[in-house]
Design goal:
The protein has about 325 residues and is of the alpha/beta class. The protein is about 30% helix and about 20% strand. A hairpin with a 2-residue loop joins β8 and β9.
Amino acid sequence: MNTIPTIFNENIIPYTAVGGKERVASTGISAVVLNRPGFPHRSFFQDIEKTGFDHVISIESASPHYDIEELAGRFPFVRFILPEKEINLGEQINLAASEIDSPLFFVFYSDMKIIAGGSARRMAERLSFTDNNEDQNETKTGFKRLCTVPVIINSNYEPLPTIVSPVTKKRIMRTTCFEPQNEGDFSLYPFNGIGIYDRERFVNIGGYDSTINNVYWQLLDFGFRSFLWGEEISLSLQLKLCYDADMPIEDFTVEENYRRFKLKNLAPVYRSNYAHLPYYRFLSYFAKSGDDIFNAWKEFKEGRRWVIKNKYRWKIDTKGVINLWEPSNNGHGD
């Protein structure tokens, strides 16, 4: 079991960076592009240039199938990141966040197109607080939330079910997805990592857990931890992306990635102003782990150490997070 990261981007990934010396603007928001194989770069970067992001970080595969040097010369505002090995979704976003200094960064894929939201400057302004709209969170950054998720539509302009809600059945938590409805509605995590992140909050919360390799459990860990620790992930109806591809199939397999998510999010007990993972929870954890007692105990102790390290970060308990999706509570709006 890899050690649970206790600080942002603790597990540094070797990579090569090409280009990106030119700053296009000073709007407060940069773009992070996660590349999918087979999609043309030229027209994509020509479109994104018009939006006016401060910088563009393009996360490539370990072995890209095109001339990176040629692209860097054509688009000097793009910084191409080539990891030495293939990395998971959370590692890609963490790596990009460590490469930029803009207060906000917008994560989306190379097969997507921004069709509503205005210029980069307008996006940043919409998420900024004004004198009459003060930030109530403890982390004062000048922006409204940890992550703002967009409306995602298909080629027929039909909204996709990308807003995630927790549901409980027979005391077991699951998630369901529905179409965007109301401004400010909460989403338990950003669908496929897509959204505008407040970089300071993102770093402060530790980013994504790079040791969780299953995308579903990695996203769920990030989102659930965010709400447990008093942050917010919510919808902006004014921000829209077009996604002309099949919806990804989520893998809900209950295995070691799930167990790590559970130890960090569901198993801790919250007591007024701190959380702890009591020893008595080990027996239940071991019974459902499917592992031998020695490995299960090693995993449990690792999770307990992580909870102790972060125990004062909790603001609400698991039930409190789920209750945020009650009809009267979901979404704060803008």
